[in-house]
Amino acid sequence: MNLLELVKARYSCRNYQPTSVEQEKLDYIMECVRLAPSAVNKQPWLFHIVTKEEDKAKLTQCYRRDWLKTAPMYIVASILHDEEWVRFDGKHHGDIDIAIAVEHLCLAATEQGLATCWVCNFDANLCKELFALPENEEPAVIIPLGYAADELKPKSRKAIDEIVL
Ligand SMILES: Cc1cc2nc3c(=O)[nH]c(=O)nc-3n(C[C@H](O)[C@H](O)[C@H](O)COP(=O)(O)O)c2cc1C
């Protein structure tokens, strides 16, 4: 798959098979995450691999959707606010950095025949509390990871002449 084919193949999967993800595939995906760029190369992030039943139950409380529970595992991407780069005018860059790393994750997973979905609309405070995360750590994205039980949907996007000036 070239990059355009990969980008077209990635979609938000909201129904997963129970099959576990192979360790080699997970290692490959996390290597793609590790190599993501970040502002001033700060790498202000942590990725929690959530596979234990007890932890999965905690995480799915933070985003109560039945479909989320179908995933065999999750990755929680956190921003470390004490490590992110802050520009001279005060703009924090952790959100940008985490977004790049998470999309590396999603594209790498797609390349490996796996499916993902960005989830940001979760209760981050509850997540922090349930996993006893430190003050400086903000859980920013939950990514369910597994084999799809649904199918690629057609992409609805703005036209190129609406976004390129
Ligand atoms: C930053 C971000 C946050 C998102 N949060 C959620 C979410 O909380 N729940 C959800 O079901 N989808 C979420 N999505 C998925 C988007 O709805 C989806 O990417 C968009 O509709 C385009 O569809 P596609 O990913 O299938 O191409 C999120 C996507 C992004 C990039």
From TrEMBL:
Pfam entry (one): Nitroreductase
| Lipoprotein in keyword set | no
Q: Does the keyword Phosphoprotein apply?
A: no
Show where the Nitroreductase domain sits: 7-59, 61-147
GO molecular function, one example?
oxidoreductase activity
Q: Where are the transmembrane segments?
A: none
The protein's required cofactor(s) are namely: FMN
- Keywords on this record? Flavoprotein, FMN, Oxidoreductase
Family listed: Belongs to the nitroreductase family.
State what protein this is by name: Nitroreductase
Could you tell me which species this protein originates from? Answer: Xylanibacter ruminicola
